[in-house]
Structures are given as C-alpha cells and as structure tokens.
Amino acid sequence: MATLGRILIVEDDPNDVELTLTALSEYNLANEVVIARDGQQALDYLYCRGEFADRPDENPAVMLLDLKLPKVDGLEVLQKVKSDEQLKMIPVVVLTSSHEEKDMMRSYRLGVNAYVVKPVDFHEFVNAVRELGAFWAVVNVPPPGSVKKAP
Amino acid sequence: MTYSAKLSTRAGARHILGRWQAQQPWVRALLRYGLAVAGVALALGVALGLQSLNFREVAVPVLTIAVALITWYLGTGPSVVAVLLATSLFDYFFVAPLYTLAVSAEDLPYFFIFVLWALIVASFSAVRRRVEENLIQARDHLEVEVQQRAQRETEIESLNRELAKRAGELETANRELESFAYSVSHDLRAPLRHMVGFSELLQSQAAASFDDKSRRYIRTILDSAKRMGDLIDDLLAFSRIGRAETRKAAVNLEELARDVIAEVGPAAKDRNIVWKIDPLPVCFGDRSMLRIALVNLVSNAVKFTRMRKQAEIEIGCVKADGAEAELFVKDNGAGFDMRYVDKLFGVFQRLHLREEFEGTGIGLATVQRIVSRHGGKVRAEGVVDQGATFYFSLPTIGKAAERSA
Question: Residues of B with CB below 8 A from A15's CB?
C-alpha cells in the first residue's frame, strides 16, 4: 500500500467530527487524521506552535476546513494559509453547511482548492467525505513538503 | 437729501397712508380731495408770492407741478379736481382780463396751453401711478410665490430626509434578514445533519435487534429530518431569490423549455409523458431565475399527472404583443378547485395531502416571486381531476429595446 498523507480536519462541532471520522473509517482510509477544534488551533498546528510545537514538520496532504469556527473563522484561516509561502501549497477543501454564494465566492477568491457543501443526507455526506479523503489524501499527488506517512 | 432721510420720509408717507387706509372710505375720500384743494391753494400762494417778487411766468410751472404731485399721490379724482381748480385760478389770477373768469382773445392760446399742459402732466402722472400700482401688485404676488416656493422646498427637504432615513432602516432590515438567512442556512442544518447521521448509524448497527415497530420509528425520524432539510433548503432558495440581483439578458424560452424538460424528464423516464412545446418568444430576464421558475412549473406538472396512463404537458404562449408575452404550462393531471386559487401561490400553501403528492409548498411561491421580479404576473386555472394551467407573463425583448432607447 502506498504511503498515505495526513488529513487535517478543522471542525468545531463534535458531532460533525464523529460523523466525518466515521465516514472516513467506513472506507478504511488508513490516513493519519488530526483534528483542530477551532481556527486558532488549526493555525497552531500548521505553524508548529503551542501544543503542536514538536509535531513532525511535514505539511498535511489535505486540510478539510469548516467556515464557521470559534475564535479564528475558516475564511481567516484560509487567507493566512494561502498568503504564506510555506503553507499555500497545502490543498484546502472547505467543507461547510453554508450554501451562501457569498461564502463560496470569498473562498474561491482566497484560493481554496475545493468547496463542498455538507449534504444533510447521511449517505451523501459519507460519500462526499469518502471521495474527498480518497481523492486528496490518496489519489492526489501532494505538493513537496508534505512527506507521506510510512505504510 | 441723504438716502436714509429719503427712506425715512418715504416710510413716514407710507405710515400716514397706512393710517389713512385704516380709516372709513368716506373719511379717506374727504382727506384726499381736501389735500388736493389745499395743494392747489398752496401753489397759487407760491405763484402769487413769486410774482410779487417780480418773477415772470411762474404760474404755469408752479401750478402744473402741484397738479402733477396731486395726481401722483392722491389719485384720479383729486387730480381732476386739481386740474379744474388750477385752470380756474390760473384764469382768474394770471390771464387777462385779470380777476375775472373770462379769457381775452389774445390770451386764449396761453390759457389753452396751460390747460393742455395740466392735462398732459395729470395723465402722465396717472399712467405712472397705474404702472406703479401694477408693479407693486406684481411684487406682492411674487413675494407670495417666493414664500410658497420656500415652503415647498422645506417640505421637499423634510420628505427627502424622511426618505433617506427610511432607506437606511430598510438597508439595516435587509442586512439583518441576510444574516438571519445565513444563520438559518448554517446553524439549522448542522443539528439536522447529525440527527440523520446518527439515526442512520443506529439503524445500520442495531437493525438486527430492532422489531418492525422500532424500524418504522427510525424510518419516520429519518423521513422527517429529510423533509425538514428540504424545507430549509427551499425556504433559503426562496429568500435568496428575493435578495439576489437579477442579471437580465435576452432569453430564448423555447431553448430554455427544452433544457428544463431534459433536466426534469429523466426522473420520470418510466412514465408515459407526451411533451408539447409551442413556438415561444425570446424574453428579457435573468436566465437562471427563469430556469428555476420553469423547473418548478414543469416538475409540478410531472408530479401531478402521476396517476395518468398518458400524461400530457404543454408549454405554450397565449399572446406576445410588443411589450409582454404570456406563457403557460398546462397538464392533464390532478388539477385543483378554483375556490382555492388564491392560496395557490402562498408560501407553505398546499392543496393536496402530503401522502398524495410530496412537496414543501414553496415551489409556486418561488415562481411568483421570480415572475414578479421580472415585472410580470402569475395566474392559474384548474378543474379538479382534469388538469391545471399556470400562466405567467414576462417582458419580451421588444420592451427591453424600447426601454433602453
């Protein structure tokens, strides 16, 4: 089996975290998954600060980013990541409840790699997360700097 | 005489005139005629005085000046009196034979020249006086008009201020509505997703130990949650149509109708539907919005003809005069009772049971909102169990050209 990239999930809602993890595990995606519960924690992780000061310093293969987050919201995280030379290559997928065109436009302007609206229907949600995980963490060749985990 | 002194005498004269005008009319007349007589007498005195000082030929100028002043300040009646009186006195005191009212033949021209002179001066004065009166009247009129205009301007200003305030309030309300819709979209959907997600997980994990009743319960939970999701989505779409800007251009409705049928048709591929698209005009509107409206109408037609062995759905055009076209979507389905036609286009209004025909009751409200945002109207005709026809009017491309011209 090929080496698998690390998935960074930025999501404040524990139910959504559990459903996302369930969806990922249902298809046996053996990727390492890191959870950040708000925008600040996500940035700490990306910049190896605070509780993530001694994490391995390769970038995640993909970041699944919710927009509505406590402290630092998703669009701010996106803006920071996409304007940082070291981080801008990380593929960012916005995974949100928001259907609003405004959010979508702003995300794309900031350089998001994909924008996915969380479906209400569980099967659709599972499918969406599985496909996202499979595509970005397995199929997609990640940019240099995001060293893959040993199998 | 300095300017201010002139002003004060004028003000004094006006003050006196004002006091006169306050008096009874007959007192006023008496005063005017009395002043005329006194004026002529004064002039005569001055003329006689000057003559006694050996000044020659002073009677004509002094008396005519008196006549002119009397005409100027006292009006036509006193002027006539002054002319007559001055003439007689002139004749009596200055025209030979002296101290009679007779006029000698050789002084006749002299006398007539005086009379003529007095009349000319009097008439000039009268004309000037009339002109001045007209001018004063015009000025007063103008003043009133200026006042009225100023008043109107203040009114307009206050209305404008009110309008600006209202616009501000409306903008705030709109912003609040937008953030409300945003919250609904974001926060209401999350718990719903969790309900559905965990119910599904429960179903898949514990299905074996469930009896029929429990399975039905969990099915109902899932159906209801899904229905609520649909309601929220439709309501949000409806509110977005109210808020979104329309991007209008020429839209070929016939092409759009074919697109819509191609989109809606496959969902009913196991049914026998006869589609009929009449020639349709090119309209002026927002393509994506008109598409939503047509999708709603066509999927309604498909839904409500479900019980027909052969469904017939027609998209046509009633009339297309220069400015507006009225189009329709007609089916041979369940129809409706015309008594409830007013409820048809309301939000969450349904005329059928949910067991018969699924739906959120927002589709036709959305259609109406889209059509009215294009300046058009919707109406419907139906007969129970025989079918329904939904009409909607749209501006044609001709009207758009007319408007931009």
Answer: 190, 194, 197-198
Task: Say yes or no for a CB contact (<8 Å) between B196 and A100.
Answer: no
Min distance A53 CA to chain B CA atoms (Å):
32
| Superfamily of A7-138 according to CATH | Response regulator (3.40.50.2300)
For residue B187, the chain A residues in CB contact (below 8 A) are 68, 97
B179 has a chain A CB within 8 A of its CB:
no
Residue of A nearest to B230 (CA): A120
* Contact list, A12 vs chain B (CB under 8 Å): none
Distance from CA of B270 to the nearest CA of A (A): 25
Residue the block writes with tokens 């009679």: B100
Q: Which region among B65-69, B110-114, B280-284 has the lowest average model confidence (pLDDT)?
A: B110-114
Question: Could you give the CA distance from residue B64 to residue B40 in angstroms, rounded to a whole number?
Answer: 9
> DSSP assignment, residue B361?
S
Dihedral of alpha carbons B335, B337, B343, B349, sign: negative
- The C-alpha atoms of residue A4 and residue A48 are separated, in whole angstroms, by 21
Most B CBs within 10 A among A99, A124, A125, A126, hence the mutation to make, goes to: A99
Domain map of chain A by residue range? 7-138
Exposure class string for B133-163: b at 16+ Cβ within 10 A, else e = eeeeeeeeeeeeeeeeeeeeeeeeeeeeeee
Q: How crowded is the C-beta side of B27, counted as CA atoms within 13 Å?
A: 7
pLDDT 10s digits, B363-380: 888 899 999 988 899 999
ipTM: 0.74
- Taken in order of first residue, the domains within chain B and their CATH numbers are 1-243 (no CATH), 248-404 (3.30.565.10)
The two structure tokens encoding residue A64: 């699944």
Instruction: Report residue A89 as tokens.
Output: 């290559």
Per-residue confidence (pLDDT) for residue A101, from 0 to 100? 78
**What are the tens digits of pLDDT across the range B285-306?**
888 889 999 999 999 899 888 8
Cβ atoms of B389 and B330 within 8 Å: the answer is yes
